[in-house]
Structures are given as C-alpha cells and as structure tokens.
Write a structure and sequence with these properties.
- By secondary structure, the protein is α+β, with helices and mostly antiparallel strands.
- The protein has 3 domains: 2-190 and 350-411, FAD/NAD(P)-binding domain, CATH 3.50.50.60; 193-266 and 340-345, Elongation Factor Tu (Ef-tu), domain 3, CATH 2.40.30; 271-336, Orthogonal Bundle (Helicase, Ruva Protein, domain 3).
- Helix content is 34%, strand content 24%.
- The chain contains 14 helices and 20 strands.
- It has helices at residues 13-25, 42-46, 61-65, 72-79, 84-92, 113-126, 174-181, 201-205, 239-247, 249-254, 271-284, 300-309, 323-334, 390-411; strands at residues 2-9, 31-34, 55-56, 98-100, 105-108, 130-132, 141-142, 148-151, 157-165, 186-192, 194-198, 210-217, 224-231, 235-237, 259-264, 336-345, 351-356, 361-362, 367-368, 374-376.
- Strands 1, 2, 6, 7, 8, 9 and 20 form a 7-stranded mixed sheet that branches.
- A hairpin with a 4-residue loop joins strand 18 (361-362) and strand 19.
- Helix 11 (271-284) crosses helix 13.
- The longest helix has 22 residues, at 390-411.
- Bound molecules: flavin-adenine dinucleotide.
- Flavin-adenine dinucleotide is lined by residues 9-15, 34-37, 42-43, 46-48, 52-53, 136-137, 166-169, 174-175, 348-351, 378-379, 389-392, 395.
Length: 412
Amino acid sequence: MHQTELLVIGGGAAGYFGAVSAAEARPGARVLLLERGPQPLAKVRISGGGRCNVTHSCFEPRALSSRYPRGARPLLAAFARFQPADTVRWFESRGVALKTEADGRMFPTTDQSETIIECLQTAARAGGVDVRLRTGVDALRPLSGGGWEAPLSTGEVVHAKQVLVATGGCKPGGPMSWLAALGHEVVPPVPSLFTFHIEESWVRALAGLAVPQAEVSVPGTSLKEVGPVLFTHWGLSGPGILRLSAWGARDLASADYCFPLRIRWCPTLNAEQIQTLLQATRAAQQGKTVINTPLFGLPSRLWEVLVGLSGITPEVRWNQLPRPGVLALIETLLRTELPVSGKSMNKDEFVTCGGVSLKEVEFKTMQSKLHKGLFFAGEVLDLDGITGGFNFQAAWTTGWLAGRAMAGLAAG
Ligand SMILES: Cc1cc2nc3c(=O)[nH]c(=O)nc-3n(C[C@H](O)[C@H](O)[C@H](O)COP(=O)(O)OP(=O)(O)OC[C@H]3O[C@@H](n4cnc5c(N)ncnc54)[C@H](O)[C@@H]3O)c2cc1C
C-alpha cells in the first residue's frame, strides 16, 4: 500500500496544473499524479492543430465567463481569482512567451504544443510531483478515519489525504461511475463543438468557400450566433457554426441533430437597408446581369447560388429585375433555411458537455460539497467553453484553485 498526501488522478492540463499548483503552494508536500495512458498531456499535444491554443486574450472575468455555455456563473467567481492574464504570467514566468492572434486566441510563440508540455513537466519535476504513467485508478472510496483509498490498475492501492479528480471528458463508466457511487450527480455527456451535415448539393458544391460573417440560428429557439461560416464536403463548419453547436449542445442532441438552420448572409443589414442597396445597384449597373454582380462582400460563387435560390435566372439584368425578384432576393439574403441531418466532430477541438454537476462543487476551492478532501478540475466537470482557448483556460483556473486549496487543507 502506498501513502501520499495529495493524489491527482489524470495527467491532462487540469491534473498537471493542479499538481504543480499544490506542490508550489506547499513545498515538500507529497503529490502523486497518476495517468492511465502511456503519455501525459496527450490532448495538449494535439490541441490547436499541434500549436496549443493555451488561452484567449479576454481579461475581463464577466466577458470571459460569457464564453461558457455551461459553467458561466460559477466560473465568473473562479476567474476573479485566476484568469487568462494569470495564465500568461504563469507561463511567461517559466520562460514560455505567448502571442495573441487577430481573433484573440493565444499560442506559445514557438507555435508548438510541445513547449507547453515541456513547461508543465519541468514545473512538475521542480515541484517534486511524483508522476506515474500507465497507472489507472480503478475506484475511489472514502476511508472511515478520513482520507481516500484508490485501488490501481497495477494491483497496488494508494491511500491519500486529499484527491483531485481531473480525469477529463465524461464517458459512461470509469470515474463517472465511482463519482456517482459517492453520491455525486453526473450530468449525462453529449458532444459540444461539432459541425453540421447538410445534404443540399449546392452546399457541398461550395466546399472550401468561407463567408467572413454570417448569422446562423435555429428557428423556434434562442440559438443564434454571428461569425465566419465555412462550406465543407459534408455541410457547414467554421467558428459561427461551432459556437452555435456549443450553445445548442443539449437541444440539438435532443433533436438527434436533425433541425432547420437559418442563415442571414449580411447580418449587419436589415431588409430596408438591403433594399436600398439593391435599388442603388439597379440604377448603377442597369445592363449587367444580377448573377454577375456579387454584393455585400459575398463570394461570387455563393452569390450565384443565392440569386438562383431567389428564382432569378442567369440572363436577368438589373434593369429587368421585377419587384417580386427583389423581394425574393432580400428574403434569401435574410433567411436561407437549410435542413441539418447530422453532425461531425470538429477535428481541431472537441469537448463534451456533461460531467459532475456544478451545484455540488464549491468553486472557491473546487472541493466537493458532499465529501471533504475530494476536489475536481477540468473537463470532468459539467462545464465547457466555445472554441478559442476557453477550454484550457477552464482547466488552468480550476486546476489552480483546486491545487492551492488542497495544499492549504493538507497543511492544516
Ligand atoms: C483534438 C483536440 C484539440 C483541442 N484543442 C484545444 C485548444 O487548442 N484549446 C483549448 O482551449 N481546448 C482545446 N481542446 C479541449 C481541451 O483539450 C480540453 O478541454 C482539455 O484537455 C481538458 O483537460 P482535462 O485535464 O480536464 O482533461 P484531459 O486532457 O482529457 O486529461 C484527462 C486525463 O485523465 C486520464 N484519466 C482518465 N481516467 C483516468 C483514470 N481512471 N486513472 C488515471 N488517469 C485517468 C486520461 O487518460 C487523460 O490523460 C481540444 C480538444 C481536442 C480533443
């Protein structure tokens, strides 16, 4: 039997950050980190296309928390303690400079996720964290005199005063079943951040084309997002679609991913403004064909499709465009509806929503409200952010809070 003070289960972003934060907050503490896989930080390695989108340059806790479809409210208080500015300082103070891209995403200046992995591993070594790979935790039980017992996949048993569960995305069985046995409510998992399947042949024919800004919404719901939309071989993707999928994760799962999608192609203009622009074009471009005069900054191939969807034939010139044609074009620009018939996971970043219910966790310390000495961090919790570095930020913040609190409690 192996004794430790602090046991961290899971060698991902949240587990490493928690272990290092605990070790640094209380030098000399015995911290054991167990990872069931052959490699630690496997998701960090593949994250952000191999570049690791570490965080987002959003330094105001309220604005930051609004990027989390699940967990916004408890995270607001957590971000008041550790937010992206702290993440930047944390890495910079260990020699890792981060840079900000135009859309706010932050990456190591090396553009290599390996830089982040090395930094975390060096910090763990410096803090004396005992990291063991290929060592899964099979169960977790409270000991009658206080503390925890964890039987391992290696046949050993660990006893610990405090435990941080940082086992990542919620899957049926495994950690979720032992946490449920401990009385924790586990919100069933569904995917977040996915792209939409659309069968329409014109959508697939436009694969590769990007629209810099469109409004996508689901009629009959409050789901609405504005952002870049990308045509793919299977339907639609891009940040606008991914954000809509994150906010709609539960509703869209209930609809079995079959729902109507509405697209407004020029989201800053209303019907009147569009009409005024069309009239001005009609006056200026009289003899030109409508199909060959793309407007509103839309790509010409998409414009051709939208003109066709409005019932305007290719030979129609602006001075021949009847009023019903103008109205039909306005309607198409404001409300193109497409049937979504399924989803694909986003290969750059995918997360699950679901996990340990947030109402049973005290967010100042990340300690369970049901069991003293049991802590949570990262994706094991029912919280998730939209794409852009927000999911790692949640892992850093919750890991840091948990690690510091564990160190404090272990000292007491
Ligand atoms: C392809 C991809 C790219 C991504 N890119 C980004 C990005 O650029 N920016 C961003 O913010 N987010 C990104 N994400 C999301 C981000 O990776 C996760 O939100 C984050 O890794 C969650 O960290 P975690 O430590 O909670 O979980 P994980 O990283 O999943 O780590 C959990 C660890 O626990 C281990 N474990 C599980 N059960 C046990 C057990 N019983 N015993 C021992 N160990 C166990 C697992 O093997 C795993 O290593 C990406 C996700 C994917 C899949």
